[in-house]
Amino acid sequence: MIISASRRTDIPSQFSEWFYNRIRAGFALVRNPFDRFQVSRVSLSPDVVDAIVFWTKNPAPMLVRLGELKDYMYYFQFTITPYGGDVEPNLPYKEDEILPTFKKLSDTIGPDRVIWRYDPILVNQKYPLDFHIGAFGRMAHELRGYTKRATISFIDVGYRMVKRNMKELKSIPPEMQIELASELAKIAHGNSLAIDTCAEKIDLQRFGVEHARCIDDRLLERLLKRSLHLGKDKAQRKDCGCASSVDIGAYDTCKNGCLYCYANLRHNKLDENAAKHDPLSPLMLGDVCDGDRVTVRARV
User: Which residues partner with 38 through β-bridges?
Assistant: First the structure.
């Protein structure tokens, strides 16, 4: 079983104490986002968990305690984009904090286990194509040797929160995606990076751009030195290549504040949910209540 930690929130940045407490306890409780009375008990035992995939924009709070994960295989999907506070208002300064954290993490666990995500790519008057080509080039040079792969995606304006927060944003037409991807691919390859796209329909293989599997059974089989028998994750979008996993996060909890985020549907719930968080609770938010149905999550 692969644990996803988490597509729904930034666990390394904001819930690392809770996560390490759950590792010590050997399980987490996860409330179904579509049925609030359904709670799953997810085993975090090393005997059950094949690997953990972390999704984050700032894993600094986790780094000092990585030794507690010695019995697990894990890797990080680490997003670094070039946007300012107008788009990502609550992230530390990239050059001073985020890039050095990426390098420190890579030095600790190795470049194969830290995937650089440059996504989502949004294009407007402030962030035109040339801006992205320059920013991606500077970051690729800075991260050369600290990662083996860059994953890109183009913003999906279909998400309700994206529409609400960035009303002026338009979809990036295919011809613009092709133009930009071809340039980013040249930069990536020039810095010894493979490059792929996350959940994109467009075929860019002629530029050496593959379709990503962010929960990547192929990478995990290499790291684990054994075969995994994982199906495609049917809960994700049609064009997502991820292998199946179990997510232990909760929506409407991430305070990074990124305007393009799809995981915060109700920003007015963030403070309310933050007040419900107890790092000692098996649930990320609150605790088990009367009427909750707790069932053991089957291994996938």
Answer: 293
Angle between helices 99-109 and 129-143 (to 10 degrees): 40
pLDDT single digits (tens) 217-255: 999 999 999 999 898 888 888 879 899 999 999 999 999
Under DSSP, is residue 146 helix (H, G, I), strand (E, B) or coil? Answer: coil
Nearest to 140 by CA among 202, 148, 294: 148
Sheet hosting strand 35-43, strand order edge to edge: 27-32, 35-43, 293-296
Q: Percent of the chain, pLDDT > 90?
A: 84
Task: Work out the pLDDT band at 163, boundaries 50, 70, 90.
Answer: low
The C-alpha atoms of residue 102 and residue 48 are separated, in whole angstroms, by 29
- Encoded amino acid at 10, one letter: D
The Cα 46–Cα 103 span in angstroms is 27
CB atoms within 10 A of CB 161: 17
DSSP 122: -
Sort 143 into a burial class: Cβ within 10 Å, 0-12 / 13-18 / 19+.
buried
CA distance 217 to 234: 15
Q: Where are the beta strands (DSSP E) in 124-219?
A: 149-154, 194-197, 209-211
Cis peptide before 6 (omega within 30 of 0): yes
SS3 assignment, position 119 = strand
Per the prediction, the chain carries an average pLDDT of 94
Q: Is it the case that residue 173 has pLDDT exceeding 80?
A: yes
Domain boundary assignment for the chain: 2-296
Q: State the Cα–Cα distance between residues 221 and 224, nearest whole angstrom.
A: 5
Q: Which residues lie across from 52 on neighbouring strands?
A: 3, 74
Query: Which strand (E) or helix (H) includes residue 77?
Result: strand 74-79
pLDDT given for residue 153 in this prediction: 96
Grouping H, G, I as helix, E, B as strand and the rest as coil, residue 154 is strand
Check the CA dihedral 82-88-94-99 and report its sign: negative
